[in-house]
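Task card 7
Instruction: Convert sequence to structure tokens.
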Amino acid sequence: MNTEARIERDALGVMTIPASAYWGPQTARAVENFPISGQRPHPAFVRAMVQIKRAAALANMDLGRLPREIGRAIVASADEVLAGKLVDQWVVDPYQAGAGTSHNMNTNEVLANRAIEHLGGQRGDYTRVHPNDHVNMAQSTNDTVPTALRLIGLELGQELVTTLDGLAGDLLAKGEAFDDILKAGRTHLQDAVPIRLGQEFTAYGHTVERDTTRIRVAMEPLHEIGLGGTAVGTGLNADPAYGERVALHLGRAVGFTLRPATDLPQAMQSMGDIVGLSGTCRTLAVDLNKISNDLRLLASGPRTGLGEIRLPAVQPGSSIMPGKVNPVLAEMLNMVCYQVLGFDLTIAAAAEAGQLELNVMMPVIAHNVAWMLTILAHASSAFATKLVRGIEADRERCRYWLERSAALSTALAPTIGYDEAARLTKEMLATGVGIAELAVQQGLLTPAQLEVILDPRAMTSPGIPGASGSA
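Output:
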């Protein structure tokens, strides 16, 4: 007898399975058929499917369909996986058969074989616990994988919003710390009216807060699951009470309030809820990219750029230029954001590719949404803790650029008119003489008037410079 392998059968014939494997013939065929990326499924996809199988076993025991001895063995096996055991047994490439049948059967076979061992049997003895008849009871790939997608969104989405709350708080804290620092504003990368450094950072914090709110709102529909729909959403082979029972058990296990979908075929056909979540992540990525680019500009230099802020030095920046330090955390976040844009495009295209009662592109949707949420959370955390919290302001550099800004003349326009202010600006740039000195020389304004009108702090709040009651 070959102790290094065992022989198993499925509907297509005989397969040789490594003796150490908990998966079975359908998984083995998928491994042979899809040597695509060399990647394994995202851990959240594995956890989601195992939680579904566990909840299904409990529900089917409640309803008297699944013998308790078998159901308890399935639950015990699922609990082991959720505790971190056997996770290396999910071996099907993310790019696999449509709908995720291979991933579903990988899960069914692993849990069945471990349950068999719990009952004193040998792996492959499916007369004790069958992957389809017992572990997959009242289920189909077509309702379990859409539910797994929702669980992925809830689990990893919650991790992301928690991280974003921290990032927003760190940015707002910098906004408060830098609120007294006046600096030149810039639009079109050209001189603009003054702004406080704190106002810039507070705006960044509020941007992240708004994106976080969008993600929370997009997560709400994910609480509605389609378990019980089975093959096409009609509920064939599922007890009429199964949907409520399985949602109750699953919700308790994952820590979210779940409810059966009001329209089971719709929950199976449409990936719109996942597309909605992905879209909010795309918006977040666009905003985070902009913030990262801003910080790189503000910290550019240190001698030949803007240099208004200093980023923490976390590693050497060059293999050839001694002492060079680069904005590596911001660059990392840029790259993550570009990847998220690609994930979102893939999710949207795959979601649109569904036909009739099913979207067969769910495996690539699951892969992309799981990694989208994962890298956004991890990147945002690193960005907050290793970059934002350590940012320092260069007050002297901010003052240096502010004093040389051509846009200070904007404050003169309400008093001397736009055209006259524009003429003074042009003359200032040509001669290098300050705009206040020019205005006094030409008798346009008195020194006392200019001191009030050109007060940079007043320019950073609503009001008309020099007018009575102005800020």
